[in-house]
Amino acid sequence: MIKPQTLSFLKQLKQNNTKEWMDNNRDKYEEAKSDFEVFVAQILSAMSTVETSFTELAPKHCIFRINRDIRFSKNKMPYKNNFGAAFSQGGKKSPYADYYIHIEPGASFIAGGVWMPDATRLKGIRQEIDYDLDGFRSVLNNKVFKKLYTGIDGEQLKKAPAGYATDNPALEYLRYKSFTVGHAIDDKVITQAAFVQTVTQSFTTMKPFLDFLNRPIA
Predict the structure, then answer these.
(1) How far is Cα 23 from Cα 18, in angstroms, rounded to an integer?
(2) Secondary structure E strands in the chain
(3) Is 55 helix (H, G, I), strand (E, B) or coil?
(4) Is the dihedral of CA 113, 114, 120, 123 positive or negative?
(5) Rounded to whole angstroms, how far apart are CA atoms 159 and 150?
(6) Residue 4 half-sphere exposure, CB side, CA atoms within 13 Å?
(7) Total Cβ atoms within 10 A of residue 111
(8) Bridge partners of 110?
(9) pLDDT tens, 44-66?
(10) Residue 128 CB contacts under 8 Å (≥ 6 apart), including other chains
(11) What's the pLDDT score for residue 218?
């Protein structure tokens, strides 16, 4: 579970997103950060039975910094209003598809997949879908999977990607630029004792989708 105080901190940060406020509330930030690190460690432990490589990871390999990169952004708020972590073989910076948890009061969600891959990675995923369309559809149409994840999220090309015909039976999937799925989480669920189990079950249900996306680099 995530402590209610952690959600409270994030609410306050959203209302006071300045360096001055953060400096004056550093103790609250450290407590919230520690709480999220404990939670991430629990997820790594719980998921290690289905993703054995996670035994080699520590929370620092998964958690994203709360500081925003504002160099090229019109939004100059120095901090994110959320805690986020990505879980994959090799950690958050690896090329593998990952599970993702986003904690933000009123806007939390569980997600996973490959977001905006580079050209080589994208080409490999599209080739795998084209090669095994039936296998990809079976993952997306699994009854348990569909209860949580209604379909692939993200932007699509208006036309067929280069090298694929307009009548390709896999075109509805090949036009995606990212391959991610997700679902929202209510704040009440986040602070419940069973939240680690909830996340673990959601991730485990997502695993066949990630396994498919990882085939080109497996």
Answers:
(1) 9
(2) 83-87, 98-103, 108-114, 179-185
(3) helix
(4) positive
(5) 23
(6) 2
(7) 21
(8) 101, 183
(9) 999 999 999 999 999 999 999 99
(10) 136, 212, 213, 215, 216
(11) 63
Low-confidence ranges of the chain (pLDDT < 50): none
Instruction: Say how far residue 149 (Cα) sits from the centre of its chain.
Output: 13
pTM as predicted: 0.95
CA–CA–CA angle 125, 130, 132 (5° rounding): 95
HSE-up (13 A, CA, CB side) for residue 207: 13
Q: Please name the residue that has the structure tokens 């490589």.
A: 53
Q: What is the pLDDT of residue 34?
A: 98
Provide the residue type at 74 as one letter. K
What is the chain's length?
A: 218
pLDDT of residue 72: 78
Spatial contact of 87 and 97, defined as CB atoms under 8 Å apart: no
Q: Are 175 and 160 in contact (CB under 8 A)?
A: yes
Angle at 111 between CA 160 and CA 108, to 5 degrees: 130
User: Cβ neighbours of residue 55 under 8 Å, at least 6 residues apart?
Assistant: 44, 48
Cα(56)–Cα(206) distance, integer angstroms: 21
